[in-house]
Amino acid sequence: MINGQVVKLKYCFTCKMFRPPRTSHCSVCDNCVERFDHHCPWVGNCVGKRNYRFFYAFILSLSFLTAFIFACVVTHLTLRSQGSNFLSTLKETPASVLELVICFFSIWSILGLSGFHTYLVASNLTTNEDIKGSWSNKRGGEASVNPYSHKSVITNCCAVLCGPLPPSLIDRRGFVQSDTVLPSPIRSNEPACGAKPDGSMEDTCQDFAISCTA
Length: 214
Description:
The structure is a single chain. The protein has 214 residues and is mainly alpha-helical. The protein is built from 5 helices and 6 strands; from the N terminus they run E-E-E-E-E-E-H-H-H-H-H. The protein has helices spanning 52-80, 86-92, 94-123, 127-132, 153-161; strands spanning 11-12, 17-18, 24-26, 31-33, 38-40, 45-47. The strands form 3 sheets. Strands 1-2 form a two-stranded antiparallel sheet. Strands 3-4 form a two-stranded antiparallel sheet. A two-stranded antiparallel sheet has the order 5-6. Helix 1 (52-80) packs antiparallel against helix 3. The protein is elongated and about 90 Å long. The N and C termini lie far apart (68 Å). The relative contact order is 0.08.
């Protein structure tokens, strides 16, 4: 029960455990991620509970950087074209033209991604929940209320971006325990080491020159 609403727990047959709420199994990383948002190819891993705020800051700062570079390039070309032909100015600065084209086409996708995640932060949702329609009527059924929302945009933003960072569940400095190697049992129909089929014993084993006693 979360905020008076029943949340079902699913069993992960790969990780052999019941998934905590808002946890999903990533097919790329092959493990369960708590508060799974999505697997981002930009950063090369999953975006989840402990790194979502850093991912949001990354795309937000990237949006400001792209917009700033685009404005600077436009200002640079405008100042250089004063008193001369604008086409001649473009021919004189091909690098600025290339940078202008790249920023023009990339700024829309980056700003769109930042706006989408701003909506998710304000609603206390994840990309996985929004795509699947976990708390909406996208599945065709009755819409349910998001039990993780605090009913306030400011509270949701503070809970997602400014809340206490939970500790890692992975002991990166821990020692790896070696697997226990069980001795293989000797079959009754096979002769022991150094034993001949007629029952007599050899003095030494042939394999690896290991001594064998009777």
